[in-house]
Every structure is written in structure tokens, then in C-alpha cells.
Amino acid sequence: MTTIDTHAAAPVCVIGYGALGQEIVAQLIAAGRTVRIIQRSRPESMPPGAGFVAADIMDAAQLTAATAGAEALVCAIGLPYVSKLWEQGWPLAMQNLLVACEAHGVRLVFADNLYLYGPQDGPLTEDLPPVDYGRKPKSRAAATRLWQAAHAAGRVQAVAVRSPDFYGPGVVQSVLGSESIVALARGKTATLLGNADLPHDVAHVADYARAVITLLDAPDDAYGQAWHVPTAPTLTLRQHLQMVADALGVPLKLTVIPSWAARPLGLFVPFIREAAEMQFLFDRPYVVDASKFAGRFWSNVVPLETGLTATALSFRPTATGVVPLLGTAPTKSFARRRGAPTAANTSSASFDPGELVGQQVEDDADAPAGVDLAMRHQPHREDQRFELGQHATNHRLTVADNAVLDSDAQPVLHQPPHHQIILRENRKVVFGEVQAECVEALDEYPGPVDVDKLGVPQVVG
Prior knowledge:
The protein is an alpha/beta fold.
């Protein structure tokens, strides 16, 4: 049992110690503040002067006890990228945060993202209402309505600090994370899902943390609303990654999986399946209007070239050849829920698309328990294990209500009614770490795409 020193200076309780939580704590400690880290398990390392209390954010009594004597609460948690867990976890976590804040009479600063806005065709502004769209956006919207109602009722002073995709040293659960910047730093191919050539704002984790602390110290009139983290001038994701490649002194190797391919690939890669509903982040310009924050507080953010260079170099392999990664989860076998091939259809030459299952899951430090987190690394029943047998060229994958595999002379990924990718012999469908090749194609392309005949192929090895 952890004893809380009630005679010490009132601490800022930072709940969640992933990449963002670590940066918030580091900046607070550097400013001479008293900090208490709260999560289920003690971090392997903490900065000198930081305190720690174990508690589960999904347990109101634990969280309320752990935050006793606090100056304020900062929520910096993340949940596994699984819709079911978001639907259960985000409203419950927010409810418990509000209970703890009300019990102690302290403020809540919620480090939020922009999912709750759903698909928008213009710049994102703080006055856009939460939407009931999809599963993950709807879950964040539900959490938002809870703190807004609590603030309006005078129960709690609450504020949201919303950031677009963020990046930086230690940040792997991001579009500019493990499958892109880290991959390039390892000498591998970066992978993006969607369109790499549309404007896409990103924020540096240091700016995100600084914005959180700014609102932590802001006067009362700044509460009861949301504020967007300021960002550097807008570029495309391809331009971001070109800066990374330049910093590493390597050519940019980039695989772009088009949005229409998310559905068929989602049959084999759970993370892509989970990300499919979020394609509105990547199929249109993603521009964040942070003029409200900049007009009141500050706008001198980390320059993109500076931030991306430092991030790229931080992920270079060490002398031991190992890249230090936050939250890298163990790989798991992929399992098909129904219609799995029999043992007669499998062989040692099979391709297991599930190599990456779990790698897009939040760091354990960011994933509080209390809901059914047995799915954290998405294990599947062994009797449903699924591998493409014999050879990737011997099967056809058809997207329908119930996907089927059958022998066919030409392997095809087929998304009705028009889109197809025809794979050459010995090529495999892959995402991220799995060694294979993919192709970038226009969403509106009307027919089959032969990877050997594209005019400007993005086939990389």
C-alpha cells in the first residue's frame, strides 16, 4: 500500500505515463513543481522528485484515494486501439475522473484528441460539436459531454486540450510513429494508411505537454471549453517523412495503403480493421485551427525540421542494434473468426498477416485496467488460427459479408465493385513489419491494378 504524504506541497497528479505523460511530468519537474504519477503499475524509471501512487482509473474509489491532496488532475491516458474498449472505457474513465475532482475540489485538464469532430470538410475549430459518428469518435464525444455537463453544473472545473496526431522522441502510437519514423530509422519502409499527399497538421509532444501545463495554470475563465494545441505550418505526411529521411541520410521508402484497401486488409490486420472508421483523418485535408489558443497564450512551437530531425535520430538503432521503443507489444498470431481453412490448406510457406497484431496497442502505462482488457494484445483462439496456405499466389480473397478463401489461378484482393490489386507471384499482402510489398493507387481508379504496370508505382522492397 502506498502512503500519501499530506504535508508535502500539493502535487499535480498526472494520470497515465505514456509518451505524453512523461513529457508533461518532465516539464513540470523542470519548473520546480510537485508531481504525482498515477497508473496501475510503477514506471520502470521516473525523474528525480516525481512521486508515484498505484491506482486504476477505471476504479473510482482507487482514483479518488490516489489523488487526495492534489493541486489538480491531468488526464493523459490512452486506451488500446479497440472500439469495444473505447466504448466501455472512455465514459467510465471520465466519470471516475470527475468523481475524484469533485471529491477534492480540484480542476481537471483533459489531454484530448480531435476524433470527436468526426468527418469535416474545413479547418477544425473548437466550436465544432461532438458527433455521434462511428465507434471511437462517439466514445470520445461521450466522454466530452460528461465533463462539459459537470462543468456547466458547477461540480468540477474542467478543460480539454486537443491535439492532432503528435510525434516526438518516444512517441510510437501515432501516424508518425512506429510504422513511419521508427521504420525509416530502422532502415525499413515507412507505411501510411490513406493519402500521403494531403495537408495534415501534426503537433510535437513537447508542445502538447506545454499546452496542457498552460491550461493547468490558466485562470478560471479558460475552463469549461476546449483549446487546440498550436502546430507548425501545415505540410503533407509525405513531406514530413521526407524531412525524416533527409535527417537520417536515407532515401524515402514509403508504402501508402489506399483508403479503399482498408476493408480487405482489415480482414487480416486487426489494427487496420480498427483504423478503417478513422479514414476521414487521411482522406481529406486535416487542418487544425489553433488561432484561439495562439491569440491568448503562445504560438512559438517546435519547428518541424527541428522536431522531426531530433525524433528521427532518437529512434536510430543503438550500439546493440536495438531501437528503444515505448510500448512495443509482443506479436500475436492472427486468427480468423470464421471460415478458417483446414490444416490441409496450410504449409510452412504460409504468410501470417497477424505478425503485427498488438503492435498498435497502447503502452501498458497508458492502458488502465477495469474494463475487459484481456484484448489488450488481441489474442485469438488457437482453434481459429488462420494462415494463407501454400503460397500467396494460390488464393483469392474476396470481401463480402463473410470473407472466403478459395484456390484461384490469380490471387486478387477484391473490394466490390471495382477495386483490385493483382499480386505477382511470390508477393505478399503486408502491413508494417511483415516483409512484403504493397502499392499506392488512386481511390477513384476504376479497375484492376497490376503492380508491374503502374505508371508511378509505390512498390517498394
